[in-house]
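Posting for a labmate who doesn't have an account.
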Amino acid sequence: MELTVGQIVEGKITGITNFGVFADLGEGKSGMVHISEVARTYVSDIKEFVKVGDVLKMKVLNVGEDGKISLSIKRALEPEKTSAPKERGERRTFQQPKIDGSYTWTPKKAEPQSFEEMMNRFKQTSEEKFSDLKRKNPEARRTKRGAAK
């Protein structure tokens, strides 16, 4: 079996290391999946995603002259659904990302700030957030008043 770049193959996981997994592709060929190619999310522990003996589909990323085969599990997965235009004349609509309001963007200043300026900004934003929390949670105000009696 001749492997080509971009081909989807099935491989059986034969070994797991902290930097990736090794897979048997059959016919005496084996390849490696780097930790960054295991899943679409951040992988800190590979064993949470794969285990020895798993048979998975993998995409061939590279076949080196020395015979080393680079594989990817995440690229062999079906692409995530996107709102791509169906026909040439159809326009794609832009959707704003969902923001929960807990993060406020502040532009960076050109010059570096002193420690006191950074501390004052931190105090101000934390006081604002704390007052927002108090406003949103009336139960917190009642318990404070009740405890003071």
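Reply:
Got it, the structure tokens are right above this. The longest strand covers residues 8-16.
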